[in-house]
Amino acid sequence: MLHNRIFQFLLIYTLGLLLLLAVKYIFGLSDYVIPGFWLLWRTAGDVSVRYAVDGVNTLSVAIIGQMASILLAFFIGIVGRQATWLGTIVKVAAYNVQAYPIVAIAPIIFILLGDGFLSRLFIAAMICYFPLLLSVVGIMSEPVTDIEHFYQQTGRMRWQLEVKIRAFENLSKLTTVIAGSSTLALAGTIVAEFIAANAGIGYNIRIALYQSDLAKILVALFMIGITLSIYQGLLEILGHSVRKAWTS
Amino acid sequence: MQVKCRNIAFRYPGAEKALFKELNLEFIRPGLHALFGTSGVGKSSLARIISGAVDAPAGVVADDAQPLLYAHNLERLPDWSAIGDQLSRVTPPHNRDKIERLLDLCGLNGHTGQRFSRLSLGQQNRINLVRYLVQDFQVLIFDECLANVDELRRRNILLHIKAMYPEKMFIYISHHVIEVATYCRDVWVLRDSSKLPQAVLTQGLDLFPDQQPASTRLHQVMLEIMNAA
Predict the structure, then answer these.
(1) How many domains in chain B?
(2) What is the band of A199 on the pLDDT scale with cuts at 50, 70, 90?
(3) Cβ distance A185 to A128 under 8 Å?
(4) pLDDT, mean of residues A61-80
(5) Count of Cβ atoms closer than 10 Å to residue B229 Cβ
(6) Could you tell me how many CB contacts below 8 A there are between chain A and chain B?
(7) Which of A40, A54, A219, A238 pairs as cysteine with A201 (C-beta 3.0–4.6 A)?
């Protein structure tokens, strides 16, 4: 799983890079527009360690934001699974809020919280929270009637058992959603850093953009891709282990 | 002990035709009774109405036999642990002594360490039936719960259930006319809602272990059931 993720990323990144270089050499563009291979190589040597550290910094914020989102989504999803007025309100609110582009709220968060760790965390969590919530609410509010029937008939059904049954029956779906939400969390963190933060790989991209330094941006993209691939691969391995432990 | 349905009317939302119109039937004694009928006449729907899982907009279901349980053949056990562990967990302590006997009767003794999904369809149906039989109940409706089980074992299970639970009422939903005619006492034949009355009572042979049916009498009962349907 991990190998596949890394291999897929490297393949796509290489193809993208080759395309850029092809455009550069076909149209005779200068290094200022698209850097040549050797300039890219030199830039990577200069900034890769710093960018790797910043990439890990960004990823750590994204992971904390994603974990907070997962916990909150499960809490709200479990409350909202019931066909009560509270459950209905939670579902309707989730569907409506999800339709709004959360990134547009980011400037308000920076105005209120300043450009530190908290703003990045908050935006990362918000961006991956709503898709997660929709999936969790969907899974938790869908009865698994062929299993739940017995427990309802015999009066044994408790909310913990109901949640356990529904989570178990949808484990593959849940792990896929959680792995997928890591991309959103990282995107949220980078967007936050890109808008106004003072640290992280997104902050470096913003500086490189002001300098019109595409080589640095390409190195930063490589760092983002490789850290995300490793993280998603690890999440998939974790999901696979949980499934295996629960079913074997 | 009785389960009575009086003037039950029911129609699924969006359906053109009513499933039940003034349906009347009653089960009034302990023993193995049957609800028989062709596919689609509403046997499972009636079972759901009797068990309270579905509300009928008109009519009354009266029973003085609680707890009343409804088991059907599409049920699954969760796959997170072996069936033996799950059976122990859902069995009331005073019924634990029945587990071994019922597992033996259903031919499942060597399978308790397995997960539900690893069992054959017949084994899955039998383990589902066993977990209902170890509950505290007065009435158990079992809906095609012996599907995919061979004839000999079905016969064995039905006969032993009757012998093990003489004070309980069982309502057996089946398409198997020989089985219903041979082992059941009251056989209610459910018919299409265009026919009145919608439920007709016939008497089965209600055989017990070591009894053999007279072939002419069995044929007569089977004919009565088929004619009623």
Answers:
(1) 1
(2) confident
(3) yes
(4) 89
(5) 17
(6) 37
(7) A54
Residue with tokens 């009560």: A84
Tell me which of B44, B114, B129, B135 to substitute to probe the interface with A (most A C-beta atoms closer than 10 Å): B135
DSSP track, A106-152: HHHHHHHH-SSHHHHHHHHHHHHHHHHHHHHHHHHTS--HHHHHHHH
- pLDDT digits 0-9 by tens, A112-171: 888 788 888 888 888 888 888 888 888 998 899 999 999 999 999 999 999 999 999 998
Given a cut of 90, whether residue B33 has pLDDT beyond it is yes
The total number of residues written for chain A in this structure: 248
CA angle (B116 as vertex; B112, B118 as ends), nearest 5: 95
Nearest to A147 among B53, B72, B76 (CB): B76
ipTM rounded to 2 decimals: 0.90
Locus of tokens 């360490």: B113
Alpha-carbon gap, residue B82 to B110, rounded angstroms: 12
B138 within a domain of the structure (yes/no): yes
- What is the least distance, in Å, from the CA of B77 to any CA of chain A? 6
Cα–Cα distance measured from residue A226 to residue A186, given in angstroms and rounded to the nearest whole number: 12
Domain that holds residue B198: 3-219
A contact set with B (CB within 8 A): 146-147, 149-150, 152-154, 156, 164-165, 168-169, 246-247
**pLDDT tens digit sequence for B164-223:** 999 999 999 988 888 899 999 999 999 887 888 888 899 988 888 777 777 788 888 888
The CATH number covering residue B168 comes to 3.40.50.300
